[in-house]
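Journal club side-thread
Mid-discussion, someone asked how the predicted structure for our own chain would compare to the paper's figures. Pasting it here so we can look after the session.
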Amino acid sequence: MIREVTMYRAECDGCKCYIDFPTPFPAWARNIAISNCGWKEINGKLYCLICQKHNKEKDEYKPKNKD
């Protein structure tokens, strides 16, 4: 049998890299990225480890500027 299946994966809003662990629910993909891979949600967007920076003085994460 062949069936169409919708799957979700987490994709970085900065560099567009993704976690190759497709899940049937969008919340699961987000939670895997944040809990298991160190990604951060900043202003409603997901950023991988490369595309985020930590401001130690304010103890907050921000997206890195695209240079």
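Post-session note: The first helix runs from residue 26 to 37.
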